[in-house]
Amino acid sequence: MPIYGYLDRIVIDxxxxxxxxxxxxxxxxxxxxxxxxxxxxxxxxxxxxxSEVDDGGNAFPGIPVGGACTLEVADIDDATATAIxxxxxxxxxxx
Length: 95
Description:
The protein is an all-beta fold. It contains no helices and nine strands. Strands 1, 4, 7 and 9 form a four-stranded antiparallel β-sheet that branches. A three-stranded antiparallel β-sheet has the order 3-2-8, with no helix packed on it. A two-stranded antiparallel ribbon has the order 5-6. A hairpin with a 5-residue loop joins strand 5 (51-53) and strand 6 (59-61).
């Protein structure tokens, strides 16, 4: 289901003992909007506020999206990770 609005926060939590996996959030053009490449079940849950920064260094809350997003989990060990929950918070708007 496509998202139309602003992504505000991402929360990552897993069950098990995997100490080295990666999470990527990409838009429908495969541009990476968020990445965490040092995830570990031992230090979770992770919670991040999402924002953008322009060329001048000004930060803006939320990441605007207008379509499908993809969550990718890489290098997770099926033998040590028993579950993963990734929650996206967003403010939606209608087209």
